[in-house]
Each structure stands twice: as C-alpha cells, then as structure tokens.
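Need tokens for this chain, all 148 residues.
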Amino acid sequence: MIGNLIKKTAVARFTRTLGTLIAAGVPILEAITITKETSGNWVFERALGNVHDSIREGETFADPLRDAKVTDMIVVNMIQVGEETGDLDVMLMKIADNYDEEVDVAVQSLLSLLEPAMVVILGGVVGTIVLALFLPLVSMIESVSGQK
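Here are the structure tokens for all 148 residues:
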C-alpha cells in the first residue's frame, strides 16, 4: 500500500511539473530535463531520460514511457491522446489532478486504519502506567495488613 502511494505521488508530481512547464511555454525538451531533475525518483528520472532522447530523435512522448512501464497504461494513453490533440499540458494537468485525488483518498484510508491501532496502543500504555502505580500500593497495603 505504501509503495502504491509513493508511485501515485511520483506520477502526480512529474505530470503536474511537466504540465505546468509546457503550459508556461517552456520548450518540451527543456521541460522534460527540468522535470527529470526535480522528480526526486530515480525510476522516473531514467524513464524521462528515455522520453527526452525519444523526442530529440523525433519520436513520440508516450512510446518510451510505455516501454519503461513506470506508470499505469491509462497515464500513457492519456499522454498519447494529449500529444495527438496538441493539448499535452491540459492532459498532464488532468492526470495530476486525478492522481492527487487518489493519493488523498489513499492517505485518508491509511489514517482511518491507523486510528484504532493508536487507540489500542495508547490504552496499553495507560494500563501499564496504572498497573505500575497501583501494584506497589497494593503490596504495601497487604504487607501492612499482614503484620497486625
């Protein structure tokens, strides 16, 4: 579950960065280089390096990304559609929005699973403290009442 969360976060980060740069008018090769350097994930750095080389050779954006298999096929297909229609920046932003939503849902579900565990752990800590305080008191009372 954590690995899936990290993967979705990386996809959202790289698509949002690339989409923002392309929408701002940065040339695509330069935008890919900047995105590669800021991705923070060596798997995506390598895949974006392959994409950069592919575009420089006149090929498409989607094919090397499909070959790298670092993203879901829907991401690759949406990028391919964006490339074909000329709205790559819009499509990248849509991908980022969708993945940001998925990350938020995954984090909320992870937190909802953690809450009961934290309650049980805190209950155990409080119970241990209570026992540590009252056991010596009980033994002192028994020793005092046993001496009479």
